[in-house]
Amino acid sequence: MIRFDLQTGKPVQGIVIIDDAGHFQLVYEPVTDPLIQKFLDLRALLPAPLNHSPAFPSWFAASPTLRALRLQLPFAPNLSKPEYLPTKSLLFMEALRDKFPQHRLLMSDFDALPEAIEGYTAPVVQTRWKNTSIPVSTFMVRQGFFDIFFPTGA
């Protein structure tokens, strides 16, 4: 998951850390993951308007003056909404290209999921209790007890 710093426009990656008590915490750092960087580099090669993040606010590029005013507002966020990148899909497409260069592929899946957590191409996180699916509002959940479903299209 990435977000954009609304002051600099640079992406940051979200990292989940677990403290000694087992509590989850989300921290942000500059993008160091090579797969995230590869995805961002490939997206930058696309023609406009496909070459930027849909989670990146349109007002950011509109005017430096508007951007400065917006960032001065009390309680104004300093990061964009989250964007979940399809890095595993990127690896799959690269494997198809390398192993089956003449392949043809037709895929169909959901491009959005009901009850997804906040963010662009965000997943649904849920568990089951007494044959009932129970969605939750975060991906920072105990491993092995929850399913995480990502949409594959956008």
Question: What are the salient characteristics of this protein?
Answer:
about 150 residues; alpha+beta; 3-stranded antiparallel β-sheet; 4 helices; 6 strands; globular
Fold blueprint:
Blueprint: E1 2-4, E2 11-18, E3 24-30, H1 34-44, H2 58-62, H3 64-72, H4 87-99, E4 124-129, E5 132-136, E6 147-149
Antiparallel strand pairs: 1-2, 2-3, 4-5, 4-6
What does this structure look like?
The strands form 2 sheets. This protein has a 3-stranded antiparallel β-sheet, with no helix packed on it. Strands 5-4-6 form a 3-stranded antiparallel β-sheet, with no helix packed on it. It has one domain. It has 154 residues and is α+β, with helices and mostly antiparallel strands. Strand 4 and strand 5 form a beta hairpin.
The total count of helices amounts to 4
**Spatial strand order of the main sheet:** 1-2-3
Tell me the series of helices and strands, N- to C-terminal.
EEEHHHHEEE
What is the total tally of β strands? Answer: 6
Question: Care to give the gist of this entry?
Answer:
Helices cover 25% and strands 21% of the residues. By secondary structure, it is α+β, with helices and mostly antiparallel strands.
